[in-house]
Amino acid sequence: xxxxxxxxxxxxxxxxxxxxxxxxxxxxxxxxxxxxxxxxxxxxxxxxxxxxxxxxxxxxxxxxxxxxxxxxxxxxxxxxxxxxxxxxxxxxxxxxxxxxxxxxxxxxxxxxxxxxxxxxxxxxxxxxxxxxxxxxxxxxxxxxxxxxxxxxxxxxxxxxxxxxxxxxxxxxxxxxxxxxx
Length: 181
Prior knowledge:
Layout: H1 2-25, E1 27-28, E2 37-41, E3 46-50, E4 55-59, E5 62-67, E6 70-74, E7 81-84, H2 91-94, H3 98-180
Antiparallel strand pairs: 1-7, 2-3, 3-4, 4-5, 5-6, 6-7
């Protein structure tokens, strides 16, 4: 009887101990083209992929992917993905429910996008101010060029009048000399 109990215990232990090795070999066939953008969740202590159809966490130079409630791990975002039991996840990840991770990710990403939008708006306004200044400078240059041209034309006109005046004086002088002769 004792021998039978020991064999049953050994058999159960073998089955229990055999499962983790089987789970660790389970692979996930996931295709990820380019490296996803990650948002750092400082409060949680890891980064999470955004804009990806997969829930991917980056922590400790490893990627953790959750698919249908199962966790997988890889040293590269393209895989290969090996199954990881939830209790084998790093405590930093394990202590948070996937729904909470998603919520933190979405909140952080909205904040980043909001800051990007604000930065883009500021950049657009700055570009508009620069363009307006450039147009103003060009307009001022045209006005200055026109003013110089007007002044030059006035000098020419003044010179022309002076020349005409001098010619009249000279003509008058010649006329007076001819009369005196």
